[in-house]
Structure formats: C-alpha cells, structure tokens
Design a protein that fits this description.
- The chain contains 13 helices and two strands.
- With 310 residues, the protein is mostly helical.
- A two-stranded antiparallel sheet has the order 1-2.
- Helix 11 packs parallel to helix 12 (267-277) and helix 11 packs antiparallel against helix 13.
C-alpha cells in the first residue's frame, strides 16, 4: 500500500491565507473606537468655536435681551474703538516682553538643573512651586508686594530710595509691567522644569564630546543641546504663547481691572469686560474672533520658527 506524503512546499501552500478584508476590519474597529472622542471634540471644541463666529455677527445687548443680526457692524464698532487698539498694543507688548524672556530664562535654568548640580532635586521642587499656587493666591502675593504700603516700597524706603516709590498697580506707566512680572514669575519655573526633563533625556555623550572639542558650558548649551531639543522648545513656546494670550484676563481682573484707564487692558480681558460688565456680547465675541485669529497666526509663526532644519 502506497502512502503519499506531502512535500514541504505543498504543506506550506495549504496554510490558511489571511483574508484581504482583515486589515479593513481592523481599521473599521479603530474608527468605531474613535467615534466617542470625535463626538466630544465636535460638541465641546468645534461647537463653541462656531458659536463665537455666530455671536460676533449679532447685536446682543445682554443674555435676556432681544437679538438682531448685525453683520459686519460689530467689526466696524470694534475697529473704531480706541480701547480695542489700546488692548492690542498692551497684548503685543506683553507677548513681546514676556515670551522671549520666559523661554530664554527657563531654558537656561532647565539646562543648569539638567547638569545635576548639588541639590538639583530640591531645585526642581522649588522651581515648580509657583505652578502649585492658585491664581488668586499669586495675585494676592503681588498685591501685597506692590501696593503703596507693600514690600517693594518698604524695601526702597529702607535703603534710602524713597523717591522711587510708586503706586505700582495704579500707575499707567507701571501697571502693565507688573502684570508682565507676574507672568514671568509664575511661568519661568514651571517651564524650566519641563526643559530640564527634556534635556535629561539627551545622551551625556553629546555634551561630553562638545567639551572635549573645547566648547564651554555656554556654547554647549546653545550650540549643541538647543538644536537637539529645538522642536520641543517650539512646543513649549506655543503653550506659553497661548497661556499668555488667553490667560492674562484673570491677572488683569484680580490686580488692575484693566486700569488705570485702559493702560493694562489686554484683548482677553476686553472679551470678559464687554461680555460680563458692559453686556455687549456681539462686541465681546468680535474681539474673541480677533483673539482666535491672533492665536492661530502666532502658532503658525512659532511652529515655522522652531522647525528642525534637518
């Protein structure tokens, strides 16, 4: 009796062949799992954004008041308002001063901590302390320091510089500078911790090779490590840009109320002021549209500036 033994090639040819529809089923399963997140994004992200543009085209003098269509009337009203242009100037100054100083100082502090100096673990916690303090508490600290009878004026009088004392938060020439100082104090330490965490992941051999070639710490910091984490610096810069642009309203509200006059009014505070104080929702959301477009353009410019060159 003769038995037929299949050859290796025949056995291999009899193995089940994966169905061409299997990858398609996997992709469809992944799409189904993403539906809840997509619905959440559409309802709570895209929906409010569309509502901003809709309300900006309405004349709406309060939540319980009748609504009429204004078209571009709100845009003309906003562009003819000197307070709006004062807010634009203040926001531009705030971003031009706070953002570069914050990123540069935070990067240098983060580089120092990443070198693991003595007590570097304690330094990390100390740098992170401002991020653990609530915004009202930060505002109270600055109010106590900058009020007419506060710590700053007291220190100036103690060292014989009483002529330099001022009502820092109530002076048109210093109110905005005090808000910028609060932004820097609350943002540098937190950002430095982020930079230190990213720099710690860079291999030690990179810095050691640069120092063997004769590069000092300054050149190693800016010519070697900075290009390595350039894209991460861009991400952190975008986050701080958005926080400064959209989050300054709470500092203004707690410390200066936009005054004196409009010397410390920013765009984000103007949105709040017109919506909740002046009850002009159309004007408020028109400024919100300008704020959104400013943020979008700023993000694109920052992303392009910190794009890797390799």
């Amino acid at each position: 009796m003769t038995t037929l033994t299949p050859t290796r090639g025949q056995a291999a040819s009899r193995r089940p062949v994966p169905s061409p529809s299997a990858p398609r089923r996997v992709r469809e399963g992944g799409t189904i799992l993403a539906v809840p997140a997509l619905v959440w994004y559409l309802v709570f992200m895209v929906g409010p954004l569309v509502a901003v543009f809709v309300v900006a085209a309405l004349h709406w003098p309060g939540m319980l008041q009748p609504v009429t269509f204004a078209g571009l009337g709100n845009v003309r009203t906003v562009l003819d308002d000197p307070v709006f242009w004062e807010a634009v100037r203040n926001t531009a100054v705030q971003l031009a001063v706070a953002l570069p100083v914050m990123i540069v100082c935070a990067y240098m502090l983060g580089y120092y901590v990443a070198q693991r100096p003595p007590g570097h673990r304690v330094i990390r916690y100390l740098l992170f302390v401002p991020g653990l303090i609530s915004t009202p508490a930060k505002a109270m600290v600055f109010y106590a320091a900058l009020s007419p009878d506060g710590l700053v004026n007291g220190a100036l009088k103690a060292v014989g510089l009483g002529s330099l004392t001022d009502a820092w938060l109530a002076s048109p020439s210093t109110a905005l500078g005090c808000l910028i100082a609060l932004d820097l104090w609350s943002g540098i330490g937190f950002t430095a911790v982020l930079f230190a965490a990213r720099l710690s992941s860079v291999p030690d051999e990179v810095g050691e090779a640069a120092q063997l070639d004769g590069a000092g710490h300054w050149r190693t910091m800016w010519r070697v490590h900075f290009p390595v984490i350039r894209d991460y610096v861009g991400v952190v810069t975008m986050l701080q840009f958005l926080w400064t642009l959209f989050g300054s309203a709470q500092h203004v509200l707690l410390l200066t109320q936009g005054g004196p006059g409009a010397s410390s009014t920013t765009l984000s505070f103007l949105v709040y002021q017109k919506a909740f104080i002046a009850a002009d929702l159309g004007y408020s959301q028109t400024v919100g549209v300008f704020l959104f477009l400013t943020g979008l353009v700023g993000l694109l410019l920052i992303r392009r500036s910190f794009r890797q060159n390799y």
